[in-house]
Amino acid sequence: MLYSVKIVSRNGNTMLNMCDSELLGKTISDGKLVMKISKNYYHDQFVEQEEAKDLLKKSNNINLVGNETISLSLELGIGTEQAVKLIDKIPFLIIIKM
């Protein structure tokens, strides 16, 4: 499984945007809520699972979309099942580490 990631670092903080690679470029919606899973926001590179794990552990702010991506995060104890939301049956999760 490849994960699509974009990393933004500023002032000692790292923001990780990551999604399942097959969702890249799609738009999902559920009524009034629309999410574009754009290459501009979610892609600089593709990474394998081990690198994705390392990025999840190191990042302060995390935006995740997709079943595989969120499962990986929850497996590491990053985020909670209760915080996962669905848009058009696609899960997304936002995590801010304090």
Overall mean pLDDT:
96
Helical residues, percent: 10-25%
> Helix and strand string, N-terminal first?
EEEEHEHEHEE
What name does the CATH topology carry?
uncharacterized conserved protein from methanopyrus kandleri fold like
Cα separation of the termini: 29 Å
The major β-sheet equals:
6 strands, mixed
Strand percent estimate: 35-45%
Tally of structural domains: 1
Task: Outline the structure in words.
The protein is 23% helix and 43% strand. With 98 residues, it is an alpha+beta fold. It has a single domain (3-96), classed as 2-Layer Sandwich (uncharacterized conserved protein from methanopyrus kandleri fold like). The chain has a six-stranded mixed sheet with strand order 5-1-2-6-8-7. The mean pLDDT is 96.
Topology:
Elements (H helix, E strand, L loop, with lengths): L2 E8 L2 E8 L6 E4 L2 E4 L2 H4 L2 E3 L1 H10 L2 E5 L1 H9 L9 E3 L2 E7 L2
Summary tags:
six-stranded mixed beta sheet, 3 helices, 43% strand, two-stranded antiparallel ribbon, 23% helix, uncharacterized conserved protein from methanopyrus kandleri fold like, 98 residues, alpha+beta
How would you briefly describe this protein structure?
With 98 residues, the protein is of the alpha+beta class.
